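Write out this protein's structure.
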Amino acid sequence: MKLRLNRISLPLAEFPLDLDITISEQVTALCGPSGSGKTSLLDLIAGLRRPKSAFIQLGDQVLTDTAAGVSVPARDRRIGYVPQDLALFPHMSVRRNLLYGHKPKNESDAAGLFGFAHVVEVLEIESLTERNVGILSGGEKQRIALGRALLSSPKLLLLDEPLASLDRALKAKIVPYLTRIRDEFHVPMILVTHCIEEVFPLCERTLHMERGRVTS
């Protein structure tokens, strides 16, 4: 599914986000130094930030067009977003976290590709569903956050540093789950990373950002 990011302009603290790109690959890595605008770009795509100007189109749906006054609310964009802090609810069980914002693609798909049973099977989290999130390991929390994003039946997955808080052993366990998500659900992914070597086998394209611009 093609993602068009045209006429993007968003003032940041030290420089503006300023880019014009089209992404059509299934998995794209977005890399660059801290503070280069990577997370701001994800927020913009997800509808969490209001740009100065932008035209954002995912497939045949225009999500943002400042010139035409179009701005689809974040909840209606069908974009699964896993932020770096995961944003899980510590007072809720794993099951309630997973089902927060659950949206089957349609009524007949409730038990289909993005159904609860299928998602927890793919991520191997069946045994965790009745536990409290607060007692889980970092790798388990990462899988819960991925599962919650998938249960929104997304057209696009945005993953902000999914390996950053994990040690080497846990990183080695999470990458195969990301690969399985790619192969099982066929959802396009944009993956922010500081270490492209960790996710290089997963990605079809790498975009490098410097001071709000895509440089390569």
